[in-house]
C-alpha cells in the first residue's frame, strides 16, 4: 500500500467533509491534500492532474480568504446560485482548456490518458473555482466528474484513489443537499427582511 496515496486519501476525505459543512478548515486540509496528490499523480504520469494540484493550491488559498471575507462588506460568504452567464463562460473555459491541454500532453509528453486526464482536470478546476465562491452547482459538477475519475483511477491501478472519488461522489451529493438548504434559508431570511423594510 502506498503510504503517500493513503495519507492523501485521508486528507481528501476530511477536506471535502468539512466543505460540505461549510467549515473554514476545509481549506488548510485541502492544501495538504493537493500537495500530496501532486506527488501521487507525478508518479502515475497523470500530468494534467499533477499540474492541477498547483492550481488547487492557489485556489485553496483564495477560497480560504473568500469564505471568510468574500461576502457583503467583507463578511462571511453565503451560498449562491450559478447564473446563465457564469455557466456559459465556465463551459467555454473548460472546453478550451481540454483542447489545449489534451493536445499539449498528447504531442509532447508520455501522458497515459492525455485527453481524458485533461477533461477531468479542466472540469475539476471549474468546480473548484465555483466552490471558492460558494456556488451551489459546484457539487453537481463534482458528482459528474467523480464518476469519470473512479473509472480512470481503476484503470491506472490507483485503487485507493478510485475509492476516494467514490466517497467524494457521496459527499458531493450530501454537499448539494446541505448547501441547497443553506441557500434557501438565507434566501428566505433576505426575503423576509426586504418585506419588513418595505412595510416601514
Major sheet details: none
N-to-C span: 66 Å
Based on Cα principal axes, name the global outline.
globular
Query: How much of the polypeptide forms β-strand, as a percent range?
Result: under 5%
* Radius of gyration (Å): 18 Å
What is the residue-mean pLDDT, rounded to a whole number?
Answer: 89
Q: Spans of 5+ residues with little confidence (pLDDT < 50)?
A: none
Q: Name the structural class.
A: mainly alpha
Please tag this protein with its features.
200 residues, mainly alpha, globular
Written description of the protein model:
- There is one protein chain.
- The protein has helices spanning 3-20, 26-44, 47-69, 84-108, 114-132, 138-155, 159-199.
- The protein contains seven helices and no strands.
- With 200 residues, the protein is an all-alpha fold.
List the helices and strands and how they pair.
Blueprint: H1 3-20, H2 26-44, H3 47-69, H4 84-108, H5 114-132, H6 138-155, H7 159-199
Helix pairs in contact: 1-2, 1-7, 2-3, 3-5, 4-5, 5-6, 6-7
Short précis:
With 200 residues, this protein is mostly helical. 82% of the residues lie in helices and 0% in strands.
